[in-house]
Amino acid sequence: MRAVTGTEVYDPGTTSVFQQLGEQSQHHQWLQFRGTYERYQPLKKEKSVWGYFGELMLSGQGEFFNYRSSLTSAPVFAPLADSRTLFMEHYRSPRFAAAGLRYSQQVLGKLEWRTEVFTHLNIAPLSDNQQLASRGAGLSRPYLTASTGFIFNTPVGPLAVHAEYYDDPDHRLGVYGHLGYILFRGRSLE
Predict the structure, then answer these.
(1) Which residues pair with 134 in a beta bridge?
(2) Smallest Cα–Cα separation from 187: which of 106, 107, 42, 71?
(3) Looking at residue 111, what is its pLDDT?
(4) Cβ–Cβ < 8 Å for 119, 101
(5) Percentage of the chain surpassing pLDDT 70?
């Protein structure tokens, strides 16, 4: 549970339809609740593991001066390691529900195969209405996110390569690799 209060200062850019308004400010206050549940069940003499995941985000965040600033300050559903490095509109919403499955199988020694699949839907989603944020009614369609890949545990951390799918037209398919642990600093509004 979190309470948020702050003042938004908006200075329209060169492509804004609100250039004539000049700099504007607006005070915002809201409460938000985020709940996450994750559980794993070992199988086959603990050489494979099934996991399930659920997340619910409920936020009273209102609309900011424009659509992009409303999305930028909105909570984000980021289920995969690189999700926080991408800006995907359908993965940002003040209210969403998500569910997912994870499977991990030891292949050879320190080599592991991991697959994850998630779906989420936005509750009263935001939409772009001529650069203004408009809150829709009901639920968005479900969005699918999936990843499969191999992880090798080295002395300096995991070496991983994953193929990923996002239900986003700008970031549909990708390959992601890394050596070591991935750490992100928490967002100030989450």
Answers:
(1) 127
(2) 71
(3) 94
(4) no
(5) 97
- Label residue 157 left, alpha or beta by phi (over 0 means left) and psi (-120 to 50 means alpha): left
The Cα 144–Cα 74 span in angstroms is 20
Location of structure tokens 């609309």: 63
- Structure tokens of 2? 């979190």
Tokens in use for 1?
């549970």
CA-CA-CA-CA dihedral for 83, 139, 62, 21, to nearest 10: 90
**For residues 126 and 135, is the Cβ–Cβ distance under 8 A?**
yes
pLDDT value for 15: 78
* One-letter identity of residue 28: H
- Spell out the residues 6+ positions from residue 110 whose beta carbon is closer than 8 angstroms to its own: 152, 153, 154
**Residue 72 carries which side chain, given as an amino acid letter?**
T
